[in-house]
Structures are given as structure tokens and as C-alpha cells.
Write a structure and sequence with these properties.
Layout: H1 5-19, E1 24-25, H2 28-33, E2 51-53, H3 58-70, E3 75-78, E4 95-98, E5 105-108, E6 113-116, H4 122-131, E7 134-135, H5 148-154, H6 162-165, E8 172-178, E9 184-186, H7 201-204, E10 213-220, E11 222-223, E12 226-234, H8 237-249, E13 257-261, H9 263-272, E14 281-289, H10 292-307, E15 313-317, H11 320-331, H12 333-341, E16 344-347, E17 350-351, H13 357-365, E18 379-383, E19 389-396, H14 402-422, H15 437-459
Parallel strand pairs: 2-4, 3-4
Antiparallel strand pairs: 1-2, 5-6, 6-10, 7-11, 8-9, 8-10, 12-14, 12-15, 13-14, 13-18, 16-19, 17-19, 18-19
The structure holds flavin-adenine dinucleotide.
């Protein structure tokens, strides 16, 4: 499988001719740095990338892919490597195309959209949008580091409630992408109406980087809105879940965000932000409007439903400083849990259907029960409750070795699969296949899985791009 030293030299020389020698690295440091994901298993030398390339243009990426097909050698496209589902821990040695030099962001306000390159960092794009009175419709906990290319590949909504303004893909008017065989394709429209019928954009947004490397993203400029902020504390997770269920059933205006933390989990975030611990499990939510009156009115309507399940406390938050503290306590709670315990945090993604939300919440609360390794660990629980999404997680003890840690991660993904299949749902974040192929097969059958395999084979006959992601092996299998 591995390249001879002669072929390796040929490969790196050719890469240097394409992007310039400065932008090709074979240093062991860069190979490790660009070959790891957020899971701290040790790097395995035989799987490390051969070389890291930093192209500047789609044309250079096209040349890199054509070259890779001649060897053939796998190509992995990398933004910031923050994937939580294994997509940035490569299963075979290959070329890593790191997109961070592709960081142009241009506004075409007279057309009503902006275009960015994949290496732009989410937060920078958010800020630039805000400065122009526009809202970037994606809000991950990793916004300070995640690349736009990575977010598009995952089509994440993150903290934004799909039922409120839709998913990121609804705002992407088109992309430029380089196919695994090197052709450059443009999809979508320069108009503000998404194409009806077959729109190839959909193959790349949420495509897990399997069908092409996205090199340009056209995003509709959505005007920013006025916000109203709300807060509730519930004595039990069951009443919290029933409150959210009511909000949907009673057809309230959907909030833009609605996050929750179970009481003991919330304590950690509150403590770090210097707030008194809550008396119960908490939710906080944001309603939007053109005017403050409209946003406040929508918030009142949401509160009317939430109140019927008897929260210990429920109110508007008008103090923005208080809101910022609460929001940041939740937004990076995974990092705070790690910070407090100096250990690695790992969480799953369970999505409920509306009808079974209270039951599913209970299963999320007891997620680790009965699992050989995970049941030995304390469970933390939080999530995007407005999207009926729960993230139960555990801290992996520092003294566990790689094999034990990997086994625990396998337990996590298997239980996640079991629950999402049971509730007839599918995760809305983090990518689909890298560790979730088994879920995909169980949920959509071999027919669905094989259809995707056939799409992939048509555009990528040598299985060059992100090899191993579609196969979706769990960490103990590779
Ligand atoms: C602290 C933290 C918080 C997070 N919070 C959230 C959250 O709230 N919601 C959420 O959904 N996720 C969250 N994530 C995970 C999330 O998937 C990533 O942060 C983000 O989507 C990936 O961006 P990235 O640049 O790191 O991509 P990478 O990890 O580098 O890549 C992810 C996948 O995208 C592909 N890819 C990258 N660039 C391109 C491109 N240009 N063209 C085609 N494919 C490409 C890669 O090949 C890979 O398959 C979080 C992660 C961390 C560490």
C-alpha cells in the first residue's frame, strides 16, 4: 500500500511544481498535525499522510487530483480537523490538501450574496456578515476554528433550529467544486431563488467531502434580526422535554436557538462563568423579529407553552451580559467539562422525533447504562433541545490506553445508532459516514448505502478522495 521512496520523491516534486515548494511539507510534525482529529489516540506512523499541500486556487487542486489519480494515491481534504466523527483521522496514507490558504471572502451586495473560499474561518465570516447587517446561518461550538469548507461538507445547523430558519444548505446558492478526477464544476445559481429539481449543490453540501473538494461557496445574505432572550429552569428533564414538545404541538413561533443543560452539567459551566449553580436543568432560547416588539411577542408565546410544564423559574432576559454568560456556558460546555477535569470529553448525538421526546430524553439521560466501559463513567448531558437533539457524553480517564479508549468510542457510536434507528431519526451534525456508516445501513438499508457507493464510484473511479470515510469503520477496525 505504501509508496516506494522513489515514487514518494516523484510525488512531492510534482506537488511542488503545482503549488510551489514552500507549500508542500513532508515534515513529521506537519504530517502528525494534519493527520490527527480531536480524539487523542496516538498517531499511527503507517497511516500518517505522505505530504501536506496548501493550494491557493481551484486550478491547483485540480492538478493535485489529476496527479493523485496517476499514482493512484488517496487525497484527504482538510479544513481545521475538528470533526467529531472521525472524518479527519485518515485511514490510509495519502496527500492532505489543507485549504487554509484559500481564505478569500467577497461580498456581492448588489446580487444579494457573498462568496467565500473553503479555508475561511467561520467566526471571521460571521463577523464580516454582521458588519454588513447580514446573518450567517450556521453557528457551531467550533466557530472560532472550523473552516467554511468543513461546515459545508457537514451541512451542520449546529445551534440553529432547523424548524426555525432551515439548514445551512438552504442558504447556499451554489458552489464551485473540483471533482475527484480533477474537473472543475460550478453548481446552483447567481439568483436568489434556489433551483428547482436536480441541483448538484446538494451533492457537495453535506457530502462529507466524498464527491468533490468545495473551492467556493455562494451564501445568500440574510438580514440580521432583533432578538429577545428567554430562560427557564425545570425540576426534571421530563417536564423540560414536555415543555419543548408543547411549544411544537401548540404551534408557537419557532425560536432561532433553544439550548439545554442537565442540572449537574450546567453547574460546571455556571461555575466557570462565575454564576450561582441552577436549581434544576436549564433551557435558554432566542426569538427573533423585525422589531423588538415582535421578538418579545414571540418569546411570550413560547413562554406560554413552556410554563404549562411547571418550570421552577421562567423569564425574559433583558440583561445582555447575563445572556452572554449563559450562552457561553452552554456553547463551549464540552470544553469546560474537559477544562475542569483535565480529561478527554466524548459525546454522542441523539435526535428524537417529536412524539417520543420525553422517552428519548430519558434514554439520553441513561445513555451509558449497561454498556461495559461507558457505564463506569459519569454521564454529562446537554444539547440543542429546540432541534430535539441531545448530546450525552462522558469523560475518558487519562490512564485509559488507546485500545480501551477506542473501544469506548465504539460503544458510544453503537448506542447512538441504536437510539437514532429506534426513533427513526438521523443526526443533524458532525457528518454522516466517517464513523456512522453502520447507522446509515441500519437506517436506510443496503439499498440506500449502495446507491451512495454507486454515486461515489461514478465521480471517483479510483476512490481517491477521502478514501475510508464512506466505508465508515469504527476506530477499532482500522
Ligand atoms: C469544540 C467543538 C465544537 C463543535 N461544535 C459543533 C457543533 O456545534 N455542530 C457541529 O455540527 N459540529 C461541531 N463540531 C464538529 C464539526 O464537525 C466541525 O467543527 C466542523 O463542521 C468541521 O470543520 P473543520 O474545518 O474542522 O473540518 P475538518 O474536520 O477538517 O473536515 C471535516 C470533513 O469535511 C471535509 N471537508 C473539509 N473541507 C472540505 C472542502 N473544502 N470540500 C469538501 N470537503 C471538505 C473533510 O474532508 C472531512 O470529511 C465541533 C467540534 C469541536 C472540536
Amino acid at each position: 500500500m505504501s509508496l516506494s521512496s522513489e515514487d514518494l520523491k516523484k510525488l512531492t516534486d510534482s506537488l511542488g511544481e503545482i503549488v510551489g515548494e514552500t507549500y508542500v511539507s513532508t515534515s513529521i510534525f506537519e504530517r502528525i498535525r494534519n493527520g490527527l482529529d480531536v480524539y487523542p489516540y496516538s498517531a499511527e506512523r503507517e497511516k500518517l499522510p505522505y505530504a501536506i499541500v496548501l493550494p491557493k486556487t481551484a486550478e491547483e487542486i485540480s492538478e493535485i487530483l489529476k496527479l493523485a489519480n496517476t499514482f493512484p494515491v488517496p487525497v484527504y481534504v482538510r479544513g481545521s480537523g475538528t470533526s467529531l466523527a472521525g472524518a479527519s483521522r485518515y485511514k490510509y496514507p495519502g496527500i492532505v490538501v489543507n485549504t487554509h490558504r484559500m481564505d478569500a471572502l467577497e461580498f456581492y451586495e448588489d446580487y444579494g450574496y457573498a462568496e467565500c473560499e473553503p479555508g475561511c474561518v467561520c467566526y471571521d465570516v460571521m463577523q464580516a456578515f454582521e458588519e454588513r447587517g447580514a446573518f450567517l446561518p450556521v453557528a457551531p461550538g467550533s466557530k472560532l476554528i472550523a473552516s467554511m469548507g468543513g461546515l459545508v461538507a457537514n451541512n451542520t445547523s449546529a445551534h440553529i433550529i432547523d424548524a426555525s430558519i432551515g439548514k445551512f444548505s438552504d442558504y447556499i446558492l451554489g458552489v464551485q467544486a473540483v471533482l475527484p478526477t480533477g474537473e472543475i464544476i460550478e453548481t446552483g445559481t447567481k439568483g436568489l431563488r434556489r433551483p428547482a429539481g436536480t441541483d448538484l449543490t446538494k451533492f457537495f453540501v453535506g457530502g462529507d467531502g466524498l464527491l468533490g473538494i468545495v473551492t467556493r461557496i455562494r451564501i445568500r445574505l440574510v438580514p440580521t434580526f432583533v432578538k429577545a432572550h428567554g430562560y427557564a429552569v425545570y425540576g426534571s428533564l421530563d417536564s423540560l422535554a414536555r415543555g419543548v414538545q408543547r411549544m411544537y404541538m401548540e404551534k408557537r413561533p419557532m425560536p432561532l436557538y433553544m439550548e439545554f443543560m442537565e442540572k449537574e452539567t450546567a453547574k460546571i459551566g455556571y461555575e466557570i462563568k462565575g454564576m450561582d449553580p441552577p436549581e434544576g436543568s436549564v433551557i435558554f432560547f432566542v426569538a427573533t423579529g423585525i422589531t423588538q416588539q415582535e421578538a418579545d411577542g414571540k418569546l411570550d408565546q413560547i413562554i406560554q407553552s413552556l410554563k404549562k410544564e411547571h418550570p421552577l423559574e421562567i423569564r425574559h432576559i433583558s440583561d445582555l451580559e447575563e445572556w452572554e454568560k449563559l450562552w457561553s456556558a452552554r456553547e463551549v460546555i464540552g470544553s469546560y467539562i474537559m477544562q475542569k477535569n483535565e480529561s478527554q470529553f466524548s459525546s454522542a448525538e441523539i435526535v428524537s422525533n417529536l412524539k417520543d421526546l420525553p422517552e428519548c430524553m430519558e434514554e439520553a439521560r441513561t445513555f451509558n447504562q449497561g454498556l461495559p466501559l461507558l457505564s463506569q463513567l459519569r454521564l454529562y448531558l446537554f444539547g440543542h433541545i429546540g432541534s430535539l437533539t441531545m448530546h450525552p457524553g462522558v469523560l475518558i480517564p487519562k490512564d485509559w490506553d488507546d485500545a480501551k479508549f477506542k473501544q469506548a468510542v465504539v460503544e458510544k457510536f453503537n448506542r447512538e445508532t441504536e437510539l437514532n434507528v429506534k426513533y427513526g431519526t438521523c443526526g443533524g451534525e458532525w457528518g454522516q459516514f466517517s464513523h456512522r456508516a453502520d447507522f446509515f445501513r441500519k437506517r436506510y438499508g443496503d439499498l440506500g448505502y449502495n446507491l451512495v457507493r454507486q454515486f461515489k464510484a461514478v465521480v471517483d473511479p479510483n476512490n481517491i478522495l477521502n478514501r475510508g470515510v464512506f466505508e465508515g469503520n469504527l476506530p477499532t477496525d482500522f
